[in-house]
Every structure is written in C-alpha cells, then in structure tokens.
Amino acid sequence: MANLTRKILGIPFKNPIIIPSGPGGFGQEINRSLLSKIGAFTIKSITLEPKEGNPPPRLVDAGYGLINSIGLQNPGIKMFLSTIYPKLCPFPTKLFFSIAGNSPREFREMAAVLNGIEGFELLELNLSCPNVKDASTLLGADPEPVAEILKQVKEVFTTRPVSVKLPPEMPDLPSVIKACENNGADALTLFNCITGARFDITTGKPFLKRVYGGYSGPAVKPIYLRKIYLARQLTKLPIIGMGGAYEWEDIFEYLLAGADLVGFGLRTMVDLTEVAELPEKAQKWLFNHGYNTLSEYLQSVRREEIK
C-alpha cells in the first residue's frame, strides 16, 4: 500500500493523523496498539495548578457535532509529571505535550520544567480554550500576549519545537500569525473549537451550566478548511490543522488546504478504533489511484493547480 510518512520540523511521522489535545485525555487508558497506528497524540492540556473543570453537564449533542465544556480539568503539572506521565512513557507514537495558562509567567514556569523532561517531541501552547472564564480564552486572539508568552517560553524551552494553538474567532489573524513568527513559534495548531450553545425548550435554560462551550464536528469542516487555507497564505510555518475532520478523505482535504498534519478530535471521542483505521483507508485510495506515496500525490495535484 501507499506510504503516508511525513517529516515535519525534523520529526518523522508514520502518517499525518494526530489526536488533538482533549479527546483522548492523557492517553493512559487507550489501547496502545491503536495509538501505534496514529501519527501523533496530544495529551490533554496541563495547567500550572490543578483545575477541577466546569460543573456538569459538560457535553451536549448538537446534531452534526458536539458542544463540550470540560474546563481544562487536570491535576496540575507537578502531580501530572510525578504520577501519570511516567506511566505513559515510552509512548507508542509521537507525543505532543500541551500546556495552558493565564499569564506569560505561568507558561514560562511550566516550559522551564518541561525543558528537561524526555519522552515528547513537541510542546503545544494552548492559547485558545473556549471553556474557561479566565484570560486563557482570549490570549490567542491578541498578538501582544501571544508575543510575550512565546518570548518567555522560548527563553527557557530550547530542546524541542513549540507550536501555538490559536482560536478560530479572532479579529486580526494576520497580526497574530506575525506575532507567532516574530517570536519563535516553530508551528501553528489551527484551530481550537468555535464557541456554540444550545437551549432546552422545555425548561428554557441552556443545556450547559456555562451556557456556551466548544463546538466541534463535521459541520464546521468547510469553515475550518477556509481558515486554514487563509492561514497558509500568511505563513510558511508548519500547520497542524484540525476542526471538522472526521472521514479518511478529510486527511487529503486538510493537507490540500495547507495543513501539514491533521487532527481528528470528535472522531476520537466517538470511536478511536475508527480513527486507527483511517490511515489504511487513505493508503488504499492512494494506491488505487496510482500513487505510491502521499508526497507523490500532493506534488501531482499541486502541479495541476499551478497549470
């Protein structure tokens, strides 16, 4: 079958499929043989101090997607590194470490600790969680805090690449991307969930305690493909694209839009076994259409675009 390997930021990936931060938790309860079939796995975002998360209900069905309001529940970086992380390593595929915070100081403190921790290939800065009341909701939409956080992180984290996870809703995408480029970002994770809400017509109240949460699912795919395409016109940084990817065909669509890796979030929550089967389906399609490698396919179709 066709070869799906990619090399991004000097890191070899067996295929471009990744599991974004959140849907797979910390990965400790997932079948490791399934994880071994995925290009990379991102742990659920860790904060400096423990977080209890939002009160239930935290999930609501929204037809062609799901609204979640987890609220960054996690044990804090100190407890995570001492109790959970040692059980994860060695991880069966490439591992990305995600951190979230409310200030440049918090990101710097966590990055300094992680600089000497082995076992993961990339540090992701979550500047875009849609499910918390504090400043981390807005950080990624403003070039000034993005720049300052990156400066602080890059001063103390020097051993591996850093990617910035941005929100889909922001007034000035070009300025934020420029802030990432000018302050040492090695990659961009585009994008976190768009915000959404649902209301119970019987009670008249919102389903979620916080009213709104992060909406994800196939319905947002065209919106996110456009956003990723626009971002690709603005930067040459590697893009970890996500938001709406669900079927094997989406691997190709997101790569054609400008992504280098493709995240499958909601599909992971529905059935990780199905996510693990996506690479083989993509390989068969490439082979049946006369391509031996993913790179060969991308070069071919892009040559046709140029013509």
From TrEMBL:
It is an enzyme of class 1 (oxidoreductase). It comes from Kosmotoga arenicorallina S304. Substrate binds at K44, N68, S69, I70, G71, L72, N126. Its cofactor is FMN. GO terms for cellular component: cytoplasm. GO terms for molecular function: dihydroorotate dehydrogenase activity. InterPro entries: Aldolase_TIM, DHO_dehydrogenase, Dihydroorotate_DH_1, Dihydroorotate_DH_1_2, Dihydroorotate_DH_cat, Dihydroorotate_DH_CS. FMN binds at S21, K44, S45, N126, K165, G217, G243, G244. This is Dihydroorotate dehydrogenase. It catalyses: (S)-dihydroorotate + A = orotate + AH2. GO terms for biological process: 'de novo' pyrimidine nucleobase biosynthetic process; 'de novo' UMP biosynthetic process. Pathway: Pyrimidine metabolism; UMP biosynthesis via de novo pathway. Residues 4-265 form the Dihydroorotate dehydrogenase catalytic domain. Belongs to the dihydroorotate dehydrogenase family. Type 1 subfamily. HAMAP family: DHO_dh_type1. The active site is at C129 (nucleophile). It is found in: Cytoplasm. Catalyzes the conversion of dihydroorotate to orotate. The gene is pyrD. Keywords: Cytoplasm, Flavoprotein, FMN, Oxidoreductase, Pyrimidine biosynthesis. Its main location: cytoplasm. It holds the Pfam family DHO_dh. Its EC number is 1.3.-.-.
